[in-house]
Each structure stands twice: as C-alpha cells, then as structure tokens.
Amino acid sequence: MGNGIETGEMMSRRYKPTFEDYVRMGKQLKLLNDFMVITDVFISQSIGKTKADKICDFWSMEKKISNLRSELESMMFQAYPDRSTLDIFYGEREDLKDQIREIFK
Q1: Which residues are within 8 A (CB) of 61 and not within 5 positions of it... i.e. 6 or more apart?
Q2: What is the mean predicted confidence (pLDDT) over 80-94?
Q3: Is the CA virtual torsion 104, 69, 92, 4 positive or negative?
Q4: pLDDT confidence bin for 70, thresholds 50/70/90
Q5: Residue 48 vs residues 25, 36, 59, 101: alpha-carbon distances, Å
Q6: Is residue 3 in some structural domain?
Q7: Is residue 35 part of a domain?
C-alpha cells in the first residue's frame, strides 16, 4: 500500500493515526476540496448554476468535506497538541494548486 499501515490496522478500531497520517489526510482533503470548488465553478459556468445544482449538489459535498476536515483537525490537536498547526488542514497549498492546474490543462 505504501502508506505504512497494514489493512488490518486500518480496519481496527484501536488504530491511532500517526501525525504523518494527519498531514497526509490534510493534503488530500485540501486537494479534494480545491478540486471540487474548481469543478463546481467550471460546470456551473458551462451549463448554468441551476442546472448544475439539479444534477449534482457540490455545495453539500463541500460542506461534508469541511465537516470532516474540522473533525480530523480536532482529533489531531487532541492527539498531537505540540506538533499540530492549523496549516495542516487549512493552510497554504501552492503545491496543490499546481496539481489542480495540471489536471485542467
């Protein structure tokens, strides 16, 4: 798998995410959120916001991702108070913006 977590550990309720796991989740969720916002804007501009919202409600998905980021951030701060920062889930992400631009070239 490459992430250092065995499938059995991931499935176990006793698995405690490492700080590095939180960093990875933060990067992935920032990318996912940015990708969804850009996709929502692109589709809305292409076919109209009303029609796009009837087909797929990106706003509610973005809200769920936001709630997940907030919950994971709280868990991270509780588990790793000395190492945690707001940047992990919400900070600068130039590297992710570049990845998204590559997708839409």
Answers
A1: 36
A2: 86
A3: negative
A4: very high
A5: 32, 16, 15, 22
A6: no
A7: yes
What mean pLDDT comes out for the span 39-56? Answer: 87
Q: Which pTM does this prediction carry? A: 0.72
25 contacts 72 by C-beta, under 8 angstroms = yes
83: domain range? 15-103
- Residue 84 belongs to some domain of the structure: yes
CB atoms within 10 A of CB 103: 10
Counted residue by residue, the chain has a size of: 105
Cα separation values, 64 from 33, 70, 103, Å = 10, 10, 23
DSSP 49-81: HHHHHHH--HHHHHHHHHHHHHHHHHHHHHH-T
Q: Is residue 2 part of a domain?
A: no
Q: Residue 27 — very low, low, confident or very high, per pLDDT cuts 50/70/90?
A: confident
